[in-house]
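Q: I'm writing up a methods section and want to include an example of the input and output format. Could you take the sequence below and give the corresponding predicted structure tokens, formatted cleanly so I can copy it straight into the document?
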Amino acid sequence: MSDYGKELIIDLHYCNPAQFTRACIKDYFSKVCILINMERCKLCWWDDLYTPKEEKETEPHLVGTSAVQFIKTSNITIHTLDILCNAYINIFSCKNFDEKIVIQVSQECFEGEVVNKQIIRRI
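A: Here is the clean output for your methods example:
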């Protein structure tokens, strides 16, 4: 049976939460897609940017931004936790890509340290 694709899972800790803005995350998606030759499609956000102050999340494991960058061959997702200074990134594609490049640009963009990474082959 041949591979259908792969998923790279990265847990970044000790990040600079100033890099968790929509602008920085969008720039990250752009850089990653250029470096691994993926075609970007729709970008979706989930955060409390336009939420009234009294309705904003305050729990450390909930304060942050989530985004999905759809790509022609699947998607890239990120979940940031501003208070904890962590970012969780998944890249799934049926087109092969160099995971070392993705890890390097992830560390650079969010100024974090990889504490866990996994590659899952999809069959």
